Amino acid sequence: MGSEIVLSDVITDIAAGPFGSNLKVSCFVPSGFPIIDGANLKGFKVTDNLTKFVTEEKARSLSRSIAKRGDVVVTISGTLGQISYIPEDSAYEEYLCSQRQFKVTFDTSKVYVPYLVFYFHTREGRGKLLAFANQTGVPALAQPTKNFKRIRLELPELEQQRKIALIAEILTTKIELNTKLNGYLAA
Asked: Which strands form 11-16's sheet, in the order they lie side by side?
């Protein structure tokens, strides 16, 4: 059986992407240190369809905004509700979050990260994530890191989280394979 927790109790680090003027288009290079943006947060896992890069030096100058494998990345503005984690088999060990994301590192002795990401893709989880959205102008999360840390949820024991996530991962993989097969058949 789990217990109700506040996310701040299981977060070890949280940081927003760099302020806009610290990451201008003029900083981009053809290859180098990858930048995560909304296009990489379409599913449960961060995808490696990367189009933006900066130099290693530039990324290190924005070190608070660097997400690593196992971290969760959440969209702050624009397409709200996007939340994904960086899988252990990602193409890169580290990614720079864009200005429209924040990254979260969880205490993995208490949280199985894929479970939490799957939870935030459910109706209940998505509702909690979007509860602090501001719809004036460009949709954005108000005080995103502060409010994210305040989210309360029922968190099962770690082993139960793993079992639930495994079933969700199997179903997600099956859906992805069926979608790919349908694309081949349509072609």
From this structure: 11-16, 101-106, 72-75, 83-85
pTM for the model stands at 0.88
The dihedral region occupied by 98, where left means phi > 0, alpha psi between -120 and 50, and beta the remainder, is beta
How far apart (Å, rounded) are the C-alpha atoms in residues 103 and 83? Answer: 10
For the stretch 84-126, pLDDT in tens is 999 999 999 999 999 999 999 999 999 999 999 999 999 999 9
d(CA 86, CA 157): 22
DSSP symbols for 20-86: GGGS-GGG-BSSSEEEE-GGG-SSSB-------EE-HHHHHHTGGGEEETT-EEEE-BSSTT-EEE-
Q: What does the block give as tokens for 73?
A: 């990345």
